[in-house]
Design brief:
The chain has two helices and three strands. It has helices at residues 8-31, 68-104, and strands spanning 33-38, 43-48, 53-58. Helix 1 (8-31) runs antiparallel to helix 2 (68-104). The protein has a three-stranded antiparallel sheet with strand order 1-2-3. The relative contact order is 0.17. By secondary structure, it is α+β, with helices and mostly antiparallel strands. Helix content is 53%, strand content 16%. A hairpin with a 4-residue loop joins strand 2 (43-48) and strand 3 (53-58).
């Protein structure tokens, strides 16, 4: 074997290990529940690690029965902010779990591996 040659068996084993790690990380993300909140906790959104909305809680204190129009607009704004907060946290978790795996691929998939 020449010094520049790629050991295909070793490469295949590394790829299989990385695939197992990726599947495991993706499962962890799917199982994770991340909360985001707005309005000091008046609205709480829960997403999974993939950013899928699982639950939305709106505190009764967010409702002003004397001004339903203003309340509806305020709650809508708080819902959007809470979901954005939760999705941002889910993206951070994705980077934490999947970032090292992408770096293991050279950041660009098989095209970055030596000999390809």
């Amino acid at each position: 074997m020449n010094p520049g040659d790629v050991n295909l068996q070793q490469l295949l084993e590394q790829a299989q290990l990385m695939q197992q790690q990726l599947v495991s990380a993706q499962q962890e993300l799917n199982d994770a529940e991340i909360e985001g909140s707005a309005g000091g906790g008046l609205v709480v959104a829960t997403v999974n690690g993939g950013g899928e909305l699982l639950e939305l809680k709106i505190s009764p204190e967010a409702v002003d029965p004397g001004d339903p129009q203003e309340t509806a607009e305020t709650i809508a704004d708080l819902v959007i902010a809470a979901i954005r907060d939760a999705v941002r946290a889910a993206n951070d978790l994705q980077q934490e779990k999947l970032g090292p795996l992408a770096q293991g691929l050279g950041g660009g998939g098989l095209g970055q591996l030596p000999g390809f």
